Amino acid sequence: MDRRKIATLIFLAPVASALLGQEGAPRPGGFDYEIERFIAEDKVSPPPQGAILFIGSSIFREWADLKAQMAPLPVFNRAFGGSRTFEVLHYADRIVIPYKPRIIVYYCGSNDVGSGASAAEVAANFKAFVDKVAARLPDTRIFFVSINKAPEKQYAWKVVDEANARVRAYTAKNKRLGFIDVNPVLFDAAGKPRFELYREDELHFRRAAYVEFTRIIRPVIERAWVEAGGERAKR
Fold first, then answer.
1. What residues contact residue 99 under an 8 Å CB cut-off, 6+ apart?
2. Does residue 235 belong to any structural domain of this protein?
3. Given 3-state DSSP classes, what are the helix, strand and coil percentages for the chain, each rounded to the nearest 5?
4. Is position 80 within any domain?
5. Total domain count, the chain
6. pTM of the shown model
7. 5 CB contacts (<8 Å, ≥6 apart)?
8. d(CA 68, CA 74)
9. Res. 167 pLDDT band, cuts 50 70 90
10. pLDDT band with cut points at 50, 70 and 90 for residue 30
């Protein structure tokens, strides 16, 4: 190889490296259409200010009976399927902060783990979300619902466990935060996944799973709602 070709390769090497780095870096913005749809719906039927916001990925987006199962608590859902923690952070200025929620119930991280993110990255993005909310809504409480150990992601359960442990430890240091662990109901007494709760993809849930989630999440949210000055829910 002549000197001219060698010089060209040396020149192009850092450029190629930079391009590869950009390709692999998180690039929020892929859910603009769905976010715009939320905003358009809000103009027609605005959600209540100071209510309870459920935010995150498809595990929450597909909670079809959320309002009925949480009634009369004033809940509404702005989860968008396929989202990762850095994307929920990115869109918080548009579909979190404007609602001024008293309580945020957050589920995200499954897609991060599935795309190869580390537990530290998941925890760091959640912390950044908490910081963003606290800067504008210092009294808002935030509850992190544990990343579920779906059978489809068994190869990454160690990462899921570590991410959950990191977030749990972080939330324990701040009275505005909480950690709600739903994984225990997803396993039977022998420690095996309850496959009847999952769809065929062994990742997303059937309605029976959301009944279990309601049993765990609702009492926590009810208590926090009353503590935040809301009326006690009457069933």
1. 47, 49, 51, 53, 76, 78
2. no
3. 55, 10, 35
4. yes
5. 1
6. 0.86
7. none
8. 10
9. very high
10. confident
